[in-house]
Amino acid sequence: MKFVEEIVVDEFLPTVRSLLAGRLREQGLTQSEVADVLGISQSAVSKYAHGDVATNNRIAEDERVQALVDELGEGLAAGDVTPVQALVEIEILIRELEGGGDLLAQLHEEAVPELADHGSSFRVHDPESDLRTSERVLSSLRRGLRILENASGFVTLIPAVGSNLVACTPDASDIDDVAGVPGRIFDVKGQATVPTDPEFGVSEHVATVLLAAREHGSGASAAINVRYDPDLLAQLSEAGHVTAEFDESDDVASSVGAAVDESPEATVLYQTGGMGIEPLIYVLGPDAETVADSVRSLL
Question: Start and end of every HTH cro/C1-type domain (predicted)?
């Protein structure tokens, strides 16, 4: 299995960095200055200069790549283009080259010939395709999970039932359109443990809360559940979140929907528990990374 993003990382970026490093050196910049501009080490610049980094000739010879490298090389050397502006321009070119039938799409399909057998090799490179949309959701979810795994103290926020970070596709209508962690995130000997990679259709509870909120007008595309604590609610409110309470002893979807109807701007939903029901806080957001950052800010 190889994603087009791997072609970008393994072949496109080394090639473009190598070309840019060469152009900047031609403009009179030192290795140290080139390293600063490109955000890489001097040793990496040296490797590019001596041809010690593998590059892709088809990418290097593409007229659009050459034109952009020339433009950015001159602009960066003169100070007319900032590294951030250069990054944006390169990102735009990457998206163009990922289009169906274009250079990166061709390289991807050559690396994964099975795509042709799948019958959707041309659609996998369409930014609006189901395959690309699903992969973007999973990629966002993986990044969010890494934020939580690396957040010191996150384990203290995991409720007894476990946490789950979920994210959904733009047109999600049921739990099969929501990705989450199979088995949830648990506290294992004081360590937040993500048992396996996220998948679609594996979260029922948190997915139900997210879908119900969306059905009643919430713009959220991701959510997580953490333990209930009034102090945590206060922190979230101070951070700018709008909180709304619902009653989980009733039908969850209906209760969440009613809460969102009353507080359309709510990004934090909570219930204080009941007989056999653990009190929980649900943090919602536009994507998994944003939700994970909101939780990390509580630590």
Answer: 26-48
